[in-house]
Amino acid sequence: MAALSPMNLNTIDTDFQVDKLTYEIFSILENKFLFGYTDTENPKNSLPNQAQFQSKDIKSAKHAAGKVRILCIDGAGATDGILAAKSLANLESCLKRKSGNPNAHVSSFFDAVAGSGVGGVLAALLFTRGKDGLPMFTADEAVKFLIDNRRKISHRSGILRRVLRPETKSEKLFRKTFGESTLKDTLKPVLIPCYDLVTRSPFVFSRADALEIDGYDFKMRDVCAATSADPAFAGPIEMKSIDGKTKILAVDGGVAMNNPTATAVTHVLNNKNEFPFCNGVSDLLVLSLGNGDSDFNAVKSPSGFVRIAGEGASDMVDQAVSMAFGEYRVSNYVRIQSNGVMSKANQGKKAKTGSDLLAVSEEMLAQKNVESVLFKGRKIVENTNLDKLELFGGELIKEQERRKTSILPTVVLKNASPSPRTSSATTLSTSSSSS
């Protein structure tokens, strides 16, 4: 998408009034067709509650149950994922400071995560369980991992690579990093998309599916290789589930779902087993992380055009999700992304090293935040991206503290069942997601 220029900033109207009837119609359409749920105040239009709670119980209890916290991470963007990783490093530092726990992890303060492309790799690093029961990586370690290995993750291979199909550098890296861990070994619900060339449709790797059906459990190393597979250079990744029954030919998740926010929100709102009291956007806290917009004029390769298309789709998803949140757009949904206005030192500069990308990412975080406005496009607000992360961290802490005294479970996480399974009714364990 085109960057916002200084001229644009001065012409954006920050004060707007939306006709009430138009707004209500738009909200209904978004609720019905974007996220797949309907007005919870009308029992005839509500989805059936699979957790066996009656609708009247939900109405009286949903506020007491709190908010489900969702983290969403875009594909590579202009910073190869480093903007999102640095955003999470700053957020984790904020959470440690505000919670008083020097060992706090990002995964402890979110109930679900979705990541596409390198964003999926980042989600896997932060939410896969390590040998000590804690996440494999802290946010700072994840930043270093992406900087040190970005060439391997976005490895460009020649014709021999595509014909002979040896294991790529990225596949070797993921094998060494994740070992035999599978989707079942993640700490929270995880959603990581790719594009399946066999069915010509998106395929979403899901912890919930992996726990219910053996045929949807995949090794994390394969998941990361699939979601980051460059279709123009590395070619597709041929992979199969743990039991060998599900086979896909996967390429980069950014091809169809560079911004996974709508997918994550839809999953949570329709997953009544794990999120029994979540019935609308007012019951959500969503953090969506972009990775900067690439320079369209500098794109010369097929892979570059795929990336640009993915970034444009990301902005469209941001617009749709922001509109769907309506009056909760500012309080319950935060999008961190470059506003396109760079300093003279970095304007037009092509970052070649990890250090360059880190410097550019830090400048993007210091920029004023961009918000989508109902029927008005985008506007620049007074708070910086760092300010937004700090404020959102405070909301995460409040929700964490609220759960300590709540008698209602905000999240009812699924546990793995012994294989083979005879049904999709997996074991449930009540959890307030405080660990």
TrEMBL record:
It holds the Pfam family Patatin. Signal peptide: none annotated. Residues 72-265 form the PNPLA domain. Its EC number is 3.1.1.-. It comes from the Eukaryota. Transmembrane segments: none annotated. GO terms for biological process: lipid catabolic process. A motif (DGA/G) lies at residues 252-254. One of its GO terms (molecular function) is hydrolase activity. Gene3D superfamilies: Cytosolic phospholipase A2 catalytic domain (3.40.1090.10). Keywords: Hydrolase, Lipid degradation, Lipid metabolism. Residues 416-435 have a biased composition (Low complexity). Residues 415-435 are annotated as: Disordered. It is an enzyme of class 3 (hydrolase). Belongs to the patatin family. The nitrogen atoms of the two glycine residues in the GGXR motif define the oxyanion hole, and stabilize the oxyanion that forms during the nucleophilic attack by the catalytic serine during substrate cleavage. Lipolytic acyl hydrolase (LAH). This is Patatin. It comes from Cicer arietinum (Chickpea).
